[in-house]
Queue: 3 jobs
Job 1
Amino acid sequence: MSYEAKLMELLEKQTSIMEALSEEKAAGESVTKTPAAFSTYAPLHGPGGIWTGPGLERDVITAHVRPRGIASALPLLPTVDVNPQFGILTGFTAGDTDDSTYWVTAHCADVPAGYVKSCTLTAQFGALRVDSQTIDMDDVMLKLHRGDFTDLMLQGELLGLTGLNPSDTDANDVLNLVSASEMVQMGVQTERLLNRAMWQGTVANNQFPGLAAQVATGQMDVNTGTLCPAADSDVKDFALDEVGGSGRDIVEYLGMLEFYLRYNAESMGLDPVQYVVVMRPELWFELSSVWPCAYNTSRCAPSVIGDNSRVVIDGRENVAERDRMRQGNTIDINGRAYPVITDTGIFEHNNINNANLNPAQFASSIFMIPLTINGGLPVTFRQYLDYRQAQRDVSFTRGNLHAWWTDNGSYAWSIEQTKWCYKFSLKSQQRLILRAPHLAGRIDSVMYEPLQHLRSPDPNDPYFLDGGVSLRGTDATRNAVWL
């Protein structure tokens, strides 16, 4: 479909929205609360529009940084269950710890019997809500003059690195259509919030618990509160030592983490397990710089090989290995190659939130997350409250509920109206499930000191950049007999 045809399609869609909102309401069908104030709205075109500058070229290049992360690698499954129960067989008790009890000459005598033990885990929804600014119906059609063009084309992408944004947000029309622009803004906010919650979410903040809270020790039965150490994750502390520094050895720590988790999977009959290694992009850059040399010379310290021995290091091979890791996003651990996912939602320590770090020093965690077990059964995945299941009840409103859903029912949209003004609202109830925490692990407090920190997609982060204006001044040079 050509750009012109696409633009015409969306203009017709916007027109249909306005027509639906301007229809005369029958008795008893009054609409909802008054939308937000107009003072915060940023018009696209017309007086004060941010794209109304004279001589503006058609192509507009984005400088917006998108989040990235693990979510796009996780299945998103529908559900309507509020309190799911996930069982783990934790083991079998011994009838007696003395082996001699079982080696008897009286064949018909009883011996102590053991018991099977289990642990039941659960998950919790987090309800996310995002609103648009209030839209005056006049604003969707106003142009300053014939030189105010609405055929601008966006170069770049605003959404889509995480799989966390609603598909009804068409970023290509953020420059020309007011309604589309507001819906894209809502999609951006949704993606940012979910990206952080995937790792940092806590029930104390009405969020679903993120992976940092679930990849943990202290697992317990949801119904009794009984501790289930067999379901605990493997959690290690790097104690703010620098990756590749003279302190703790990152090869030893990652190697032991992988070996411990692999041993669990093999001993429990859950192999093959599909793992991913997840960390912040800045940490990955520093780790990949030192890994080839550290990995290929592990345990080659002088105390091991002798003071008179030498380790020969080929610089070209190390650089080639480093480049291979970065280009393919893979890391070799104990002879196995693992995919690496960089995720901007993982919490990062700095000298502002952690007094033990100096300026330009950062610290965060490295995770090993099992995606599937036994060659395909998902054990780390997302669930959403399926709004499609409300269709039978919604049908009783006879079309008077101004709401719809997208993305197979994972996002619910609605329109509020007061006279000729309207706004959009978006909600989604999602949760993140880790069915096998005993196959997951993390290394906390790994310190790194990059030459330059990357730009952040989080507006609350000191490395977030935007700038520019949300409202331009109107033309104050007009002259007329009636002014």
Job 2
Amino acid sequence: MAYVALGSNLGDRRAHLAAARAALAATPGVELLAESAVEETPPIGPAGQPPYLNQMVALRTTLSPEALLDRLQEVERSAGRERAERWGPRTLDLDVVLIEGRSVATERLTVPHPELPRRDFWQRELAELRTAP
């Protein structure tokens, strides 16, 4: 079971999140099991950004953590994501937050996500998913 955070603060934020959920659900080796409520949060990072819409999804996947990351980055690119500034505004941001029973520490990926303890909204969304039927 993998938990993936979705965020958007540019363009049609709700549409970006919906398109990301649909793309993940259509990915071979991925089953979308549940999604948290969508919530609006202040931006983290440079000042002057619009607020984010955030959500987390629970996935059952046969993909390796690195292959899942590759797929997430592909979905981000399809939404027009540009990696110009760390924590800058973006059409879509997808992060592997947690993978049940696994930890990962590579150059490209750290799981659990190092920001999990500092992001209250991720903790709320994760708790919501873990208590979902």
Job 3
Amino acid sequence: MSILGDDWVDMQRDAIDQRWMHVYPQQGKRSGAYMSGSAYDVHPYLLLNYNDDYDSLSTFAHEWGHAMHTLYAKQNQPFETAGYATFIAEIPSTSLELILQEYMVRSADTIDEKLFYLGSGLENLRGTFYRQTMFAEFELALYEAAERGEALSGARISEIYGDILKRYHGHDEGVVLIDELYTNEWMFVPHFYRNMYVFQYSTSLTAGTALYANIVEEGSAGVENYKNLLRAGGSDYPYNLLRDAGVDLATAEPYQAVVARMNAIMDQMEELIEERDREN
């Protein structure tokens, strides 16, 4: 995390040393990972189920993005405006995952290891940018059907979800064939039982990718804009806070940048595979 400056590194290291995390799985512990920072005058708490693998390390970075956001906001905002919108909340978590991925690729000893990290990053972009957008379109379709007065039985919801799933994956064109079983997938997505949440993963990843690109290109100025976004907490509408940080999500450019990043990762992976083939 040194790219974010000494104050970030010092604050995160100090926080880790104070043992605000419950790290490893144990009997009776809930699954998953989360950060709880809702008490204004108490430091954040983190729950992990760390398994000493890359996914766990990426989750570690993700949850500390939330925790550092909370710390910066509470240091710079009064109680009334320290809480930040969900629209902003997933930005530091996803950007820290990007920082970790770039570091791991640079530090990898072998081509296969680089391919592993790049592939993980590519899958994360697919799952967060495209899949969560698909989820959001499904939610919207449900609300629109209800507004039209349609009856939403389980079979009808599966039909709506299946049509969207097939369209996104090119089923009719033979790109990815979707088995009918997967039309029931919506039943097992917890966020569908919380109204209109999932789109914010896609927008947050988009914003986090753009902010990380600004950090790489602009150096200290990009880092300061990024930190100012975290320091702002909930002091303004989230769109305005992001625009002040240099990312306008009402324009096409940030979203096109995510697609460009995906293409760049695939190009890099193809080059590495060709290099490995030459070596063998």
